[in-house]
Amino acid sequence: MSEVDIILLSAKVALAAILFALPPAFAVAWLLARRRFAGRGLLQALVTLPLVLPPVATGYGLLLLFGGQGPLGRLMENFLGLTFAFRWTGAALAAGVMAFPLLVRPIRLSLEAVDRGLEDAAATLGARRVTVFFTVTLPLALPGLVAGAVLGFAKALGEFGATITFVSNIPGETQTLSLAIYALLQSPGAEPAALRLILVSVLLALGAVLVSEWAGRLVRRGSDGRA
Amino acid sequence: MDALEVDIAGRAGNFAVEARFRAPPGVTALYGPSGAGKSTILKMIAGLARPQSGRIVAGGRVLFDARAGIDLPARARGIGFVFQEDRLFPHLSVHRNLTYARWAGRRAARRDVAEVVALLGLEAHLDRLPATLSGGERQRVAIGRALLAEPEILLMDEPLSSLDRQRRAEILPYLEAVANETRIPVLYVSHETDEVARLADRVVALEAGRVRAVGTPAQILAPSGDGEAVALLEGRVSGIDPRYETATVDLGGATVELGAPGLPLGGRVRLKVRAGDVAIATHRHEGLSIRNQLECTVEQVVPRGTAVEITLALGRQRLFSRITRQSAEALALGPGRRVVALVKAVSVEQARLMRPVEVGKTGIGGS
Question: What are the residue boundaries of the ABC transmembrane type-1 domain, all occurrences included (chain A) (predicted)?
Answer without folding.
Answer: 7-210
